[in-house]
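Entry for magnesium ion complex. Fields follow.
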Amino acid sequence: MSLSESSLYEALRQVIDPDLRRDIVSAGMVKGLAWNIQDRKLSLTLQLTTPACPLKDYFREEVHRVLIPVLGDGWQIEVAFSAQTVGVSTDALPNVRNLVLVGSGKGGVGKSTISVNLAVALAHQGARTGLVDADIYGPSVPILLGLEAARPSVEEKEGKPYLVPLRKYGIEVMSIGFLVPPGQATPWRGPMASNTLRQLLLETAWGELDYLIVDMPPGTGDIQLTLAQQFRPTGAILVTTPQRVAQADVEKALTMLRMPLVQVPILGIVENMAYFWTPELPERKFLIFGEGGGSMLAQKYGVPLLAQIPLTEEVVHYSDKGIPVAMLEENPVGIAFRQLAGEVVRAIAKTLSTAA
Ligand SMILES: Nc1ncnc2c1ncn2[C@@H]1O[C@H](COP(=O)(O)OP(=O)(O)OP(=O)(O)O)[C@@H](O)[C@H]1O
Ligand SMILES: [Mg+2]
């Protein structure tokens, strides 16, 4: 059978991108299709919407599945990936393709833990990632990354001074905690706090970033509104715990983000401390805080439940040492955070494709 470009493209149309709900040919993802009949080799590149795409194995298998009947046996098929991260960079932060808020409404549910681990997991998957600690009152990012003693340097750009973000675990980081001595109270009042945060975001020399994750302070006040309105985030992730008492606060945050003058898309909900897990009884999930809080909220508001992260001793232990568990290859919570990163990336791609 002779091999034609059109028969190959026809076959590739059977591969569907489950997030975009389109086939990879009409979505314009197939690049550089080339083959050599003598060597029985075919190669192509799939252009993804992010280097952190969790679907690479799926696409590779699907391409093989649909091409083998056309090519016949004994062919070597090479699928490479390139990425053009989709995003909506704004005038305020032209280097940042996607600003992603991690908030809650409620204190102590794990916003900072989730932010840090999400950022590290995105970088691990190949995305250029930054993290900004928007908790002007109680910054915790310096501790979680083991950067308590670090101080950023300043560089001049076009005659203006900029803070140079610190780098650790593959991410760029900025926090008010790097500028104010640890332990010193920061009694900012409302407008001052939002201004400080604005400055921190605008006067940092961020590199080209696919994702800038924002660790939000608890609540639904000035800072949340400033960020949502002035920086046009791609979306927000809301963190909750399974208890009923956490939900009212998260619902307040959800409602605020959906207000007509705010309108930040909700990427989904993360249920943290979903159950207690210990390596001594790996089969058991101890539902110490009850069950179903995250999925109930997700259903009620029609948003995805992105992850259920267990409560483990290791998270506390490693957090205190300044090591994000997302760095640990074999750790079950580390794995859960890397899965979360994949889900967040997919939720962003979906949000942007429906907004377009
Ligand atoms: N999955 C988890 N397993 C065990 N401990 C956790 C987990 N998530 C968070 N913690 C612990 O709970 C505490 C609160 O977490 P974290 O600081 O991330 O919450 P937060 O929502 O950012 O708090 P705040 O509202 O004060 O900013 C920390 O001591 C953290 O180590
Ligand atoms: Mg916090």
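NOTE: The first strand starts at residue 16 and ends at 17.
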